[in-house]
Amino acid sequence: MNTFTSDRSAPDAAAVDRAEIKTGRRKLFVKSYGCQMNAYDATRMADVLAPEGYDETTDMADADLVILNTCHIRERAAEKVFSELGKVRVLKEERAALGLDMKIAVAGCVAQAEGAEIIRRQKAVDLVIGPQNYHRLPEMLRRAEKAGAVIETEFPIEDKFDHLVAPARAKVASRGVAAFVTIQEGCDKFCTFCVVPYTRGAETSRPVARIIEEAQHLVAAGVREITLLGQNVNAFHGSDEAGDPCSLPGLVIKLSRIPGLLRLRYMTSHPNDMTDELIAAHASEAALMPFLHLPVQSGSDRILQAMNRKHRASDYFDVVARIRAVRPDIALSSDFIVGFPGETEGDFQATLDLISRVGFASCYFFKYSIRPGTPGAEMDNQVPEAVKAERLARLQKLADGQRHAYNKSAVGKIMPVLFEKKGRHPGQIAGKTPYLQTVQVDGPEHLIGTIVDVEITGTSTNSLFGKLVEQVS
Ligand code: 5AD
Ligand code: SF4
After folding, report:
1. Which ligand is in closest contact with the Cα of 293?
2. Which DSSP string corresponds to 376-422?
C-alpha cells in the first residue's frame, strides 16, 4: 500500500521540501470514518490548523500531521484503529529515516472512549483528542512538540462549541453548495446499544446567534443548502439573541430568513422529540425539505424496550402519520439494528412488518455489535452472527425493493433540483431533489448553486436521471 519511499526519494521531492521549509507550510492528512458529524469535524480541524500553516494533502505519506478521525459505531472500531495506526507508524518511521517529522493524532469517538489506552498500545501516537477539544489542536501540537504525547478528552463546559466558531470566519471559500452546521452535540437518551452518550457526552445545544453567524458566512461563500447536525438534533434547545429558549422549529424559521439560503435539512432525529411545532414547520417553512431521517431501530416492542428506546412501534406509526398529515410527500429514512440481544424470529418479523407498513425512501441496517461499557454488552442472550447475517439479507432485500419503487415513482415528475457540482460525465451537472435523491442532468455549469425544474426521466441504483424543463445554454 505504501508508495511513500519511492515518491519521497524522487529528485523533485527534495525541491518540494526546500520550498516547504521556505514558506513554513506543512501538510495535513485527515482520514475520517463514520457519520456526517465526523466529516464535518474533519473540515473543522483543517480550518483550525490552516492558520498554523497546514495545507491538506491527499497523500498520507507526505503529511507532517496525520489525523485519524475515528468512529466508535463501527464493528470492532478500536481494533481497526489500532491496525490502521500500525500502518501509519511505518510511514512515520520511513519519514524519520529521511529526517522528516510526522505527528500522529487520533481524534473522534474512539479517542474519546479509549483515551490514554491508545498511547499505551501505540507509542507512535502523539495526540489523542476527543470531539469537544478540536479548537485546542494548535496548542496541543505545540505541547506535543515539547513534552511528548498529549491527551485531551475532557468535556469543557463554557467553550464547548468554540471549536465551531472561529474557523467559520477563517475559511469559507471552498464549501460548495451544500454544507453541514453542527447545532447540537451529545445525547442523554442512553439507548442500551449505543456509545454516543459516553463518547460525545451530555446533550448540549449551540447558541442561536453563533449558528446564524456561521450560516451567514457560509451563504456569503456560496452555500445554498444547510443540513443542521446533531446526534439528537430535534432535541435542540438553544437560547436566542435575547436569551430566550429556542427549539429546532424556531431555529429553522430564523435561518430561513437568511437571503440566499434556499434549503434546510436536519439530522439525526429521535421519534420522541418530533414535537407538533417541528412537524408544523414542515408545513409552513418552504425552505425545510421534505426528507426526514428518523431512526426506529426495531419494529418489536419487546426489543425497543430492551434497547431503552422509550417508545413502541405504535408510537412510531403515530409520528409518521402526524408528519404525513402535513407533508404527505415526505421521504422517510431510518436506521435499524438487526440481531440485538434476545431478538427472536418473531421480533424480526415485527421489524419487517414495520418497514412494509411505513414505506421508506432509504434504510440503513447495522448488525448489532457489542460496545464495551454499554448495557447491551452485558446482555447474555447475544444472537449468533450467522442469524444476524441471514436476517440482514432479508431486510436488505425488502428495503432495496422499497427504494427502487420509491425512485421509480419519481419518473415523469417535475422536481426542483438544487445543482451542487459537475456530473458524472462531461456536460452533466448533478444536484439533489427535495427528497435527497441525486439527479444527473445534461446542463451548463453555471446552473450550479441554483434551483431549476427538472423532469425525471429514469433511475439507476443510486441516482435519478432527468432533463431541464426549460433548455438553458
Ligand atoms: N451495534 C450496531 N449498530 C449500532 N448503532 C449504534 N450502536 C450500534 C451497535 N452497538 C447504529 C444505530 C444508530 C446508527 C448510527 O448506528 O442504528 O442509529
Ligand atoms: Fe445513541 Fe441515538 Fe440512542 Fe442517543 S438516541 S443513545 S445517539 S442511538
Report:
1. 1
2. HHH-S-PPPHHHHHHHHHHHHHHHHHHHHHHHHTTTT-EEEEEEEEE
Ligand nearest to the CA of 388: 1
Cell of 392: 440482514
CA distance 473 to 471: 7
Distance of alpha carbon 294 from alpha carbon 269, whole angstroms:
5
CA of 194 to the centre of ligand 1 (A): 6
d(CA 90, CA 122): 12
Beta strand 103-107 pairing with 178-182? unpaired
Reference 335, options 359, 367, 301, 363; nearest CA is: 363
Confidence of residue 273 (pLDDT cuts 50, 70, 90): very high
Q: How far is the CA of 369 from the centre of ligand 1 (A)?
A: 8
Q: Is the pLDDT score of 400 beyond 90?
A: yes
Q: How many CB atoms lie within 10 A of CB 158?
A: 6
C-alpha 199 to ligand 2 mean position (Å): 11
Residue 178 pLDDT class (50, 70, 90 cuts)? very high
Ligand nearest to the CA of 72: 1
- Structural domains of the chain in order of their starting residue, each with its CATH number: 10-152 (3.40.50.12160), 169-408 (3.80.30.20), 414-468 (2.40.50.140)
Q: Which atom of ligand 1 is nearest to the CA of 335?
A: 17
How is residue 201 written as a grid cell? 457526552
Return the closest-CA partner of residue 117 out of 144, 89, 78, 87: 78
How far is 347 from 406, CA to CA, in rounded Å? Answer: 26
Cα dihedral 106→110→113→116 (10° resolution): -30
Helix (H, G, I), strand (E, B) or coil at 428: strand
Length of the chain: 473
With 0-12 / 13-18 / 19 or more C-beta atoms within 10 angstroms meaning exposed / middle / buried, residue 378 is exposed
Q: Which amino acids bring their CB within 6 angstroms of ligand 2?
A: 187, 189-191, 194, 196-197, 231-232, 270
pTM (2 decimals)? 0.79
Ligand 1, atom 11: nearest CA belongs to which residue?
366
- Pocket perturbation via mutation, ligand 1, pick of 335, 367, 378, 388 by most ligand atoms within 8 A of CB: 335
Distance 368 CA to ligand 1 centre (A): 7
* Binding-site residues, ligand 1, Cβ < 6 A: 73, 193-194, 295, 297, 335, 337, 366, 368-369, 371
Please say whether the beta carbons of 293 and 273 come within 8 A: no
Ligand (nearest to CA of 337)? 1
Going by alpha carbons, the residue nearest to atom 18 of ligand 1 is 335
Q: Is 364 helix (H, G, I), strand (E, B) or coil?
A: strand
Q: How many CB atoms lie within 10 A of CB 323?
A: 20
Q: 51-65, 379-393, 421-435 — which is least confidently predicted?
A: 51-65
